[in-house]
Amino acid sequence: MTDMTFQRNNCNIIIPKFGTTTAEDVNSAVIRLKAKRLDLVAMDMMSVNYLCHTMDGEGLLPDIQVIECTPRDDIQDEAWYRLDLFNFGGGGENTFGKSIYYHPNIIPLDLCQTILLAAVPPAGENDDLPKALRPLLDTETLARIETEKLPYISMPNKWWTEEDNINTYNDWYCAWHAQDHLYLKDLFDVDPTAVQEQYGTNVQGFIEDNLKGIIIPAGCGHFGKYYINDKTSNDSLNSDWKENVACFFPAEWTVTHNTEDMTADYLSYGHEWRTISPLVRFLYADTNNGAEIPKSDTYFRTWWIGS
Question: How far is the C-alpha of 129 from the C-alpha of 60, rounded, in Å?
């Protein structure tokens, strides 16, 4: 892995490029983030770095730094290289602040900046906890965070129903501080064969089962998905939204004052101006395991990714 050091107030957005993901997919993901003026919003708070975790960095934009991934004979599926990222960065005073594992199929929407730039506290610290997290922690837990040096991680939960919904959190976004979760990679390296026999390609399941520390809520309804070329599945998201997200309104409604937006469907086909709930900050394009590409869906292309 490339040896890089970052200051503690940096935000490192790391996009994986393995399998069928192309350099242009990564480039497009970065351009979409830049179009949200993420760099300008962060100017007085931190520096934003765009990185790509890959075995082949050819064709990437010049301002995308490459985290070189070294092939291993004991890894059967490239998904497991994701654990290398918990070992990423410098040490001591040069340890970077925050890293984000960010899948290239994520589309950033309005107000995404507040989530991307929100701090993940270092392990054992609780002075700068997110406002959404502090009410969930009792005095005993706060004391344990300090005495046991518990680490934090931010992962959006799945509010939608899937046929094989074995994980609580989605596997296309997570954020953490420095090398606070290096123990996950260390645990995998003890016996990679046994871990892969148990979990197959379910890296997210391995992370959830062995996670230490505190999960930071990623925001009620702030992450959503869209099934490419599958209107039936997209329609089913509306009922899941009402059952698992809208039930927390108006307390968790943090955007417009328009009550029609709050009571509207998650996705609205055929509406004259509404497409998706304004509460959503990130939309993930589910491409059915690579069988489809986002641009093949005209509705998705029209309203979220353009030409």
Answer: 35
